[in-house]
Amino acid sequence: MLSMSVVPPLLGLLVTLTVFGSMVVVGLRRRRARDRLIRGGVPVRAVVVGVRRRAVDTSWAHHPVVRYELYGRTWESEPRDGEHMPHPRGRRSARSEDRSVGQTVDVVVDPRDPVRSAVPIPDRLAVTLIAVGGTLGGLTLILGLLALIVTALGRG
Predict the structure, then answer these.
(1) Each residue of 3-28: pLDDT tens digit?
(2) Which end of the chain is more exposed for a tag (fewer CB within 10 A), N or C?
(3) Is the pTM of this model over 0.70?
(4) Domains in the chain: boundaries
């Protein structure tokens, strides 16, 4: 039978594992959806026509807006992971808005919904979520189980 003194640490362990497990699940789902778009998408050449700034914590992320032609129509979208596009000719400017307007980029477009697009580069956020969640979740599980075993042995 479980001692009542073991229940709070066990609940804490379960909550922590749930958080790290959720990180892995979100990363895997994000990667799967993006890979599906890239595998089944139509590659097109697009031109960056603008940049939208979005607040991220205490900084800004710059998301390009691209224009391309598909099915005889002109479409605009904000490609998934576009904020990680390389700078033109490898140079960095002080103003990220200036760096890419007019730049041509390769994007992959969803043929069923041409407003959905992605830049065909690795999804850094998904990889980070999977790696951090898996690593910290595994370490938490190992250390938590060791702590519970030591606690149980110390009482017995």
Answers:
(1) 676 677 788 888 999 999 999 999 99
(2) N
(3) no
(4) 7-155
